[in-house]
Structures are given as C-alpha cells and as structure tokens.
Design goal:
Radius of gyration: 41 Å
Oligomer: single chain
Shape: flat
Helix content: 55-70%
Amino acid sequence: MASPDEPKGAGAPSGEIAQQTLSDENVSWSDSWSSSGTSATEVSPATSVISTPPPITPLSSPKTAAGGGGGKPPKPPEPPDGDDDEEEGMARMSFLEHLEELRKRLLLAVGGVGIAFFLCLFFSDELWNFVVAPATVALKHLGINPPVLLQISPMDTFRIMWMELPILAAVFISSPWILYQVWAFIAPGLYRRERRWAVPFVVSSAGLFIIGGLFAYFVAFRYGIEFLMGLGIGKGVTPGISMSEYYDLFVDVMLGVGVIFEIPIILFLLTLIRVASPSFLIRHSRYAILIIVILAAVITPTGDVFNLTLFATPMIILFYLGIFASWILVLHREKRQFPWRTFYKWLGIVLVVLILGSWLVFRYYGYHFVTHWPIFVR
C-alpha cells in the first residue's frame, strides 16, 4: 500500500510506468510535441521525472508502410536507352558543340572544293573554251567577225582563267560533297528514321544543281546573251563585251539558275524541319507562281509568250515537285500509304495534255525550234 507522502501512481511497477509513458508518447508525440514543443505526457509539478521525446526514426517507404517490401527503398528510374539518345540527336548538344560541328563541316566542305580546284587547274584551257562558246556563237549570229572578247585589264586573263573559273568548276564538281556536309550537320537533329533520306537528298540536290547549270548554259544564258548583245544592231552600236563582264554575267546566271533548280530540295527541307507543310505550300502557290513568272520574265527579256513559258514552266514544275516530295514525307511520318494508282492516272493525263498541246502548236501555228535566239520561231 502506498504511503500518503508518495505521489499518485508511485506504487506502480517501474517497468509498467515506463511502458505506459512510452506508449503515451508514441501516440501523441507526433502531434503535441511537434506543434507545441513539449511532450504530450503531462508532468505533475510534484514529480521530478522529465519526459524526453522519443528518438526520431527515418520514415518508412510506402511499400514498407503497406506491410511489404522488407524495408528496401524503391529502385531508381532506369536511364534512357541508346535509342532515346539517338532520337534526341543534336538536341543534347550545347551551343559550343554546335559551333564545333559547324566548323568541322565547313572545313571539310572547303577542303573538298580545294582538291577539286587543283584538279581543275590542269584543264583551265578546256574550261575557258567551254565558257566562251555561248559568246562566240552569239557574236557569229550577230555578224561580228572575229567573234572574240576584249581584255581590258592586264590581270583579266590570269584572274579569270587561272583563279575564278577553276573555283566555279570546282564548286560544281564538288557539289555532292558540299551537300553531304550540309546533310551531316542537319542529320543529328533529326529522328533516326528521317536520317535515311541522306543518300536521296545528296543525289537529288546535286543532280538538280547540275541540271540547273546545264539548263542555264544551253538555254538561258546562250540565248539571253545573244538577245542582249543584239539590241544595238542597226542603231549605230557594234556589239562587244569584255571578258571580265562576260564572265561575271556567266557566273551570275549559272549559279542563279542552279539555285532555282534547288526549289524541290528547299521545300523538302522546310517540311522535314516542320517549318512548312504541303497544305501551306498549296494555299500560297499562287504567290509562288507569280514570283516564278517574274523571274522568268527577267531571264527572258522578250515579250514572246512561248519563250517566257519556256523558262517559267520548268520552275513551276520544280515547285510542285517540291510539294509532292513534301507530301511523301508527311505520309511517311503518319505511316500512311501513297495512292500510287491515282498518281499514275493523273500523270498520264498531264502527259497526254502536254503532248497534244505541243502537237497543236507545231502543227497549226507553224512554230518550230531553232538553235539561235529566239528559240521558237514561225
């Protein structure tokens, strides 16, 4: 029996008191201790026992709290596999890495042009004969004898025949290598399935650039130079041109028409990087056709509708060819099949209409081709 002087509860066994105190603290410590800074167990002023908070234990994982998992922490998320890294591509490159890649591709492209330049130096005479041929033919048709160009500056021959002309030829010869470097710089930022377009891109872009140069040489420049030099005939003007001015005009026309023939590749790339779409290009095709006709009118100074059509038609065809390539790319992205049967049907209709139209022009209007300007005559 407890004595009257002992505080209430002092007669309980010490182990029972400790167990009760610990149980009370476990129940109310998380709320009362954390909020008020004191233990939930009330301490009588008469007692000298001061309760202390229980030791803080680490929180258990959800799996442990649910009664399973053996207390093991959850596994960290697995790193992305190699395919995801490859899909990310250039997106993981820093700005300095972009500049380093650009510098590398520029050096490789310039190196390819340099090798082609030294090879072209051995054929400088043949290259000059090829360049001066349109002027010679034009002067002969205009009755200028001898049909030669004028050297105004003592440095003209050396500068053109041994420096600028080999560089121009080297650019055309090394155009596949240059375009490959362009693709190699763009490709890391594309999806892996889109990088398969590398070979078609290089072959088609280089082929179109060379075809554009040939079209400029045999059609645009050849007949354009004859028309321009013949404007003063019968007006007290004798046609004559310096080799420097002739070469500058030659380069402008060759490179300009060569770039124009890259219209399908430009439209394809714009669709590839999601800047344009086939629907957008078709909606604004009227403006593109207007610009093409204006360019054709500049290249063809005559008012003849047939010669204007001769230059405008290939450009318009190239524009719609670029839309067609963009559409193929969009179908490939969306995993849809291309309607080849409908395509062949409309292609046949267009070819039949072109053949019949050409036959009517030659049969009933008396037009025919000639080897001098203008190209269509009656």
